[in-house]
Amino acid sequence: MKTPVHALVSLVGMFGFVSLGFEGYAAEAKPLRVLIIDGQNNHNWKSTTPVLVDALSQSGRFTVEVSTAPPKGQPKEAWSTWSPDFAGFAAIVSNYNGELWPEPVQRAFETYVSSGGGFVCVHAANNSFPEWLEYNKMIGLGGWGGRNEKNGPFVYRKGGELVRDTSPGSGGGHGPQHEFTVEVLDSEHPITKGLPLKWKHTADELYHALRGPGENLKLLGVAHSPVTQRDEPMLLTLSYGKGRVFHTPMGHSDVSMKCAGFQTVLERGTEWAASGAVTLLVPADFPTEEAVAPRK
Ligand code: ZN
User: Fold this and answer.
1) How many angstroms separate the alpha carbon of residue 210 from the centre of ligand 1?
2) CA of 142 relative to ligand 1 center, distance in Å
3) Which residues of the chain have pLDDT under 70?
């Protein structure tokens, strides 16, 4: 008689625990510490960083801090005090496009990502640092800054195939801002799992002709460019050593960043880069194939 009763009690206890664990998981998970870097950009970082902070904070999954690098044209001494403690964060989000960071900061960032840190590259952050090879390996593809065939192939999709195009030419371009459809290529990846296969993004620059080392790169989503007639990378993941990188060329302005689709992939991409997993759900206001979903 004793044995079945004990078995029953432990079974109830086990189910109770499991059920509590599932219900409480997202809320109970320790927030991931995220650092956004800004301070220089040919875009209005003063209006876009707050949108990134709000989106990440409101997900409830992160605590968010910002490190603002010295403005352009400062003497070397101004940079000597700027040395973010990368290792204290689960992921670094770059909203920076400007002067090269000091050597010690570059090396610290390389060590941070290669030893397992998370990195998220947003829009013009992929214009940054054409001369810094390791950074280009992290982001995979970049534009402008004199990038050309020496920096690596153009990477895009054409006729359903991933193309690495080594033809000569400068990297980076876009047409006028417009609403465009993002096509999800990989629904099994934690970042894109559960997203509609096609969704309409709020008006943004559709970057084309990005090129770079393109190593260890996974293309999760593309958008068809009316300029190149190619499917251009919009959602990418990369590995750099033990580190995980999420890269999206979307996010030109605060308006583009207020797209519920952009914010969802930013949050899920950051969670994945930081932890290797995604617990954040697809929100009810996510855009559809027909309709954009701008947030306030
Ligand atoms: Zn832009």
Assistant:
1) 13
2) 13
3) 1-28
